[in-house]
Amino acid sequence: MKADKVISGNLVLEDRVVRGEVGIKDGVIVEIKDNGDSIQAREKLDFGECYVFPGFIDVHVHCFSNPDEGFTKVSRGAAVGGITSFLDMPYDLPNPINNVDEFQSKRRRLEQESHVDGGLIATIKKSGGLDQIQPLAEAGAAAFKMSLFETDPYRFPRIPDYEIYRAFQLIRETGLRVGFHAENDDLIYPLIEEHKKNNNTEPVAHSDSRPPVTESSAVLKLLEFAYWTRVKLHIFHVTLPRCIDYIQQFRKEGVDVTAETCYHYLLLDIEDLKEKGPLVKVNPPVRSKEDVVGLWHRLKTGEIEFVTSDHAPWLYDKKLEGEGDIFKSPSGLPGIEILAPLLYDAAVVSGKLTPVEFGKIMATNPAQTFNLHKKGSIAIGNDGDLTVVNPHKTHRINAQALQSIATWTPFDQQQLQGKIAATFVRGHLVYDGEKLTGVPGDGKFIPGLAYKTEREMIK
Ligand SMILES: [Zn+2]
Q1: Residues in Cβ contact with 96 at an 8 Å cutoff, skipping those fewer than 6 apart
Q2: CATH class, range 55-369
Q3: Distance from the CA of 36 to the center of ligand 1, in angstroms?
């Protein structure tokens, strides 16, 4: 008997959906049958009409921008939301992950506290941090993240051009990807001041003080730096079709650049910011209805590789400090638990994307972009990470019941078609459609693969 567990249903493979079975042994996929044959195993779980997707991956999560959240709460939300792997951002409170000691202690916490698999993105200091790039890459960073917008000079700095240039040259050697928060703060800070001076602090002032040029000019600069240094570049949370068009242009010139958008940029626009105020405040801001249509189009064509949550768990009271003055509210929305359910409903149920396209966006493309070993597709030799979606079941988002400390979302009480019926991490059931069935420590650290060729990886 080869497999120790068999899961059957409508398998979402890379090129088709088939009624079939997946056999898993010691956490790894060892057999796939799609011709009516059955796999012998001790434990057989038949999900009938449900879709069995490759485990969904969210590569943009902030577990410690509020330290009260942490790996356990985020990964519980992940399990319930069908996310089997995540990448965590480095801008932690109190200390960012810009040296090996911080990196190693965070890795140990992940291994002890997470319900699902996770990797870590590292960063560098505003200046003088270049010598940490190689050691962080060797320690297992999945990627590097930097910003052109300064949220905080120590924790979340804007990196000056000289440091970017040298960092790109060093990161190129590691083979890892560098991702950017691309907003032009030379433009944004004076615009915010101008709005404040004019007592222009209603919700839409957030978006008005970060007009499209603040994002597109930052993206263009990074593309040009990547062109000359040949680093692998990723642009986090793109909100504008125009930026995706620039990215396409540079791809044609041979730049290895990838792009994501977030669920909120596909589902919310400026009208929602006007209506719901602080609960829709996020950086970059939500955009126009036309931009939303343009993003959906580029998602369908594959020009946007994947969609993330940018999970940022602010407490409700903290978020509401911006009532009456939008600039007083912190930016960001929680989302790891609702990312896949919301998008499944908006993309697959609506007919905008096929299940195969959805599997690519939610699993295959993020795994490929960040070189996540043995993740991202239902294939022999890959980890038995599976997300089962029942397309016939409806449910309602209940913000109070979210696993996060942030028990709010602008999508509260929204009715959704399609529900996560089970989440498997390396063959282990961590969520059964009703309750969490795993424990902290079930999750494993996903090491980055710096300095490794693809050939070495396959071994
Ligand atoms: Zn973020």
Answers
A1: 90, 102, 123, 154, 155, 156
A2: alpha beta
A3: 44
